[in-house]
């Protein structure tokens, strides 16, 4: 008895496996769908991106476009992860080793306080401009200033720029968000007469030399508080700005390099400032003897009563008190820097020299901040031009 020959099983035709950067077009058999043709490409991580079309011609065109977008980096190939997970990697692993401590602390604070609580639960690839637009609106409703909202947006946008570069997302959705207008705080510099009144009111106080130095050198407060005697040559009348210091939440006092390369600068001191610093050093030596064993020798020019860093909160309180005593406007301490620059410009000091004293990276920064000083200067220039052509 012969065995009945079984019919051979019909082998299912296998589509060739596509590697990343390749693509295919095929038809869904026995499908009742209107769009039966599939355009497909394989991404770097092995996943497939598909689109569905009514005709084979449309599918071929779509495959071609997807391949082109893939080559141009417009198709994300990164892992599925929530925004919180990505931001933690972005800050802690990718950038923390190269960031200034103060910059890292700034990013960390805004991630923890604002970005992650509001947006961290959303998948990175599903974050939209609408999400970010609503987020910025909510921050304003919570009472944040427009400048802070813009800063938070900048941090998120910077992180998403990296995500695009690393091909985790196709576009940065922050780019189309409309931001609140930046309400720049009005600078309130003291004029020459007001500056003299403040100096007089400060005589004999703990801020005597600090205020005088701020008004004659335009140093930032962080630069003043980090200043050491080794940075000053009283004989040569020079001062070297090498450090800045601030008290950072969860980290304590952090001393760092100045704000920028141009902020690391050498200044020539006026003779009057040198005399004030000499008197201040003599008083500091007396205070050091009184402190005895409590004194912590850090070599600071403006320490607290025990030699450590002078707390900003205490300095601000003393400064406000002096303003009231002198009958002056309620300005910020940083306005002393603006006052110094304004006085220098009104005295006819060239803007380029003022730029170097301030430590600005470019003359345009100086002109943008202090352009209001120049109308009278321009008038003086035109008066000189009148004299020239009338002679």
Describe the 3D structure.
The protein has helices spanning 56-71, 83-95, 101-119, 129-141, 146-165, 192-202, 208-217, 221-225, 271-291, 312-326, 335-346, 351-358, 363-370, 374-390, and strands at 23-27, 37-42, 48-53, 232-233, 238-240, 244-248, 252-256, 266-268. With 391 residues, the chain is mostly helical. It folds into three domains: 23-71; 83-176, DNA polymerase, domain 1 (Orthogonal Bundle); 192-380, hpI Integrase, Chain A. Strand 2 and strand 3 form a beta hairpin.
What does the largest sheet look like? Answer: 3 strands, antiparallel
- Using the CA coordinates, give the radius of gyration: 32 Å
Structural class: mainly alpha
Strand runs, count: 8
The CATH superfamily of the largest domain is identified as: Intergrase catalytic core
Amount of helix:
40-55%
Beta percentage is 5-15%
How many structural units, i.e. domains? 3
Q: What is the 3D form?
A: elongated
Taking all residues together, what is the mean pLDDT? Answer: 85
How many angstroms does the end-to-end distance come to? Answer: 135 Å
Low-confidence segments, ≥5 residues, pLDDT <50?
A: 10-20
Strand order of the largest sheet: 1-2-3
CATH fold label of the largest domain: hpI Integrase, Chain A
Q: What is the N-to-C order of secondary-structure elements (H for helix, E for strand)?
A: EEEHHHHHHHHEEEEEHHHHHH
CATH class wording of the largest domain: Mainly Alpha
Total of DSSP H or I helical runs spanning 4+ residues:
14
* CATH level-two architecture of the largest domain: Orthogonal Bundle
């Amino acid at each position: 008895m012969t065995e009945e020959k079984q019919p051979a099983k019909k082998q299912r035709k296998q589509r060739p496996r596509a590697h990343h950067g390749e693509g295919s077009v095929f038809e869904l058999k026995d499908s009742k769908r209107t769009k039966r043709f599939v355009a497909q490409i394989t991404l770097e991580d092995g996943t497939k991106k598909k689109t569905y079309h009514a005709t084979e011609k449309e599918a071929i065109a779509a495959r071609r476009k997807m391949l082109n977008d893939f080559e141009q980096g417009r198709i994300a190939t990164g892992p599925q992860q929530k925004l919180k997970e990505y931001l933690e990697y972005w800050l802690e692993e990718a950038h923390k080793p190269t960031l200034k401590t103060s910059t890292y602390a700034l990013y960390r604070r805004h991630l923890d306080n604002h970005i992650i609580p509001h947006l961290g639960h959303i998948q990175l690839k599903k974050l939209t401009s609408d999400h970010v637009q609503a987020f910025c609106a909510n921050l304003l409703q919570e009472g944040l200033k427009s400048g802070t909202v813009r800063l938070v947006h900048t941090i998120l946008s910077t992180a998403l720029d990296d995500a695009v570069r690393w091909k985790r997302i196709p576009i940065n959705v922050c780019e189309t968000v409309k931001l609140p207008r930046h309400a720049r705080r009005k600078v309130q510099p003291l004029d020459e007469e007001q500056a003299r009144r403040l100096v007089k009111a400060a005589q004999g106080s703990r801020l005597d030399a600090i205020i005088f130095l701020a008004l004659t050198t335009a140093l930032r407060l962080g630069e003043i508080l980090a200043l050491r005697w080794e940075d000053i040559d009283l004989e040569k009348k020079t001062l070297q700005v090498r450090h800045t210091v601030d008290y950072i939440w969860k980290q304590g006092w952090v001393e760092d390099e100045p704000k920028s390369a141009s902020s690391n600068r050498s200044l020539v001191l006026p003779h009057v400032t040198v005399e004030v610093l000499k008197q201040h050093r003599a008083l500091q030596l007396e205070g050091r003897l009184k402190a005895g064993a409590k004194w912590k020798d850090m070599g600071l020019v403006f320490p607290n009563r025990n030699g450590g860093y002078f707390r900003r909160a205490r300095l601000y309180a003393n400064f406000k008190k002096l303003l009231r005593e002198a009958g002056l406007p309620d300005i910020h301490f940083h306005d002393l820097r603006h006052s110094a620059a304004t006085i220098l410009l009104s005295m006819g000091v060239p803007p380029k020299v003022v730029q170097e004293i301030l430590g600005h990276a470019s003359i345009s920064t100086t002109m943008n901040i202090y352009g209001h000083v120049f109308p009278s200067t321009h008038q003086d220039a035109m008066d000189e031009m009148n004299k020239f052509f009338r002679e």
